[in-house]
Amino acid sequence: QVRLVESGGGLVRAGGSLRLSCVYSGNFFSISSMAWHRQAPGKQRERVATITSGGSTNYADSVKGRFTISRDNAKKTVYLQMNSLRPEDTAVYYCNNSPGATFVWGRGTQVTVSS
User: What percent of the chain has pLDDT over 70?
Assistant: First the structure.
């Protein structure tokens, strides 16, 4: 069974940066497309970035040009580099496979951006 552990969140001022990590425990990471999602208080979870097994990426319009998703297959880790953070980026961030987010969700990592 795949286990996902997110880390790297924190409190940052608007305009600042954070780098999130998601460690994947299990098989088939290198052939899995992965995605970062986020859920703000009172809102539905939304997907913000996706990376395929071949390294192709896709971003939600709200983060395009500011966030970068990457992966290290040797470490079974997916990253999300977040720059030019805005208060509206405040949320709990999660990773999962893509499409479908079929793995059990991890606990996520809280990102809080102050204005």
Answer: 100
